[in-house]
Design a protein that fits this description.
The protein is 76% helix and 0% strand. It has ten helices and no strands. It has helices at residues 11-18, 22-29, 35-41, 48-75, 83-129, 134-143, 147-161, 166-176, 180-195, 199-204. It is elongated and about 80 Å long. It starts with 10 loop residues before the first helix and ends with a helix. The model has no long low-confidence stretch (mean pLDDT 92).
Length: 206
């Protein structure tokens, strides 16, 4: 399940509250033009404006919680007005980290993708050599235990079943995949398909 970092509020509540902040989310999203892509690559099921609109109430709640707590503590120290300014600075830093979170999460997916890519390609090769089509091989991979790689191929096969061509579905996977090695491999397969080359030969050169 996708999550909002630094949030004490349940995701369902954040989704409801986000409707109030969609307009602000649109404006802030312009300052983070790559956020939409990073959310896709992190496998987080939010549009950029929705993600930002959920981060805002999460950070407001955190600001109020920290501000109130610090104020109670600082009253005893004779500085009752410092609590909320400190909380504002701290919350601003956390909001910036929320905007960067999809990038960090996408980077974490790279290791998982790369670790399972070669075993998955070997399984595809075996299927292709046995006379199975590339689509059928991808379906098999999507149902096996290749971690994030299986998840990626599941999204591709779902798009193909929905009417998308194999090449377009694979191209979309390349765009939203965070692993450079994975993207390079799939591009080689796509180029081979466009040129009419043997897919087994293409994969064998990876």
């Amino acid at each position: 399940m996708s999550e909002i970092p630094f949030s004490f509020l349940p995701l369902a509540i954040l989704k409801r509250l986000s409707q109030i902040f969609m307009g602000i989310g649109d404006h802030i999203a312009k300052a983070y033009p790559s956020l939409e892509l990073e959310l896709d690559r992190a496998n987080m099921e939010f549009a950029a404006r929705q993600y930002i609109a959920m981060c805002i109430p999460a950070i407001i709640f955190l600001f109020l919680f920290i501000g109130a707590g610090l104020t109670i503590i600082l009253i005893k120290m004779g500085h009752p007005f410092y609590g909320f300014p400190i909380a504002f600075i701290f919350s601003s830093i956390l909001f910036f980290m929320q905007m960067r979170f999809p990038t960090y999460k996408a980077m974490g997916r790279i290791k998982k993708l790369d670790a399972n890519l070669l075993p998955a390609l070997s399984a595809i090769m075996i299927q292709l050599h046995s006379g199975v089509s590339l689509f059928e091989a991808m379906v098999m991979i999507s149902k096996q235990e290749f971690g994030e790689v299986s998840n990626e191929f599941k999204k591709v096969t779902n798009k193909i079943n929905a009417g998308e061509s194999q090449i377009v579905a694979l191209e979309l996977m390349v765009v939203t995949n965070p692993s450079p090695y994975f993207r390079k491999t799939i591009w080689q397969i796509i180029n081979g398909m466009k040129e009419g080359a043997s897919i087994t030969t293409v994969i064998d050169t990876v």
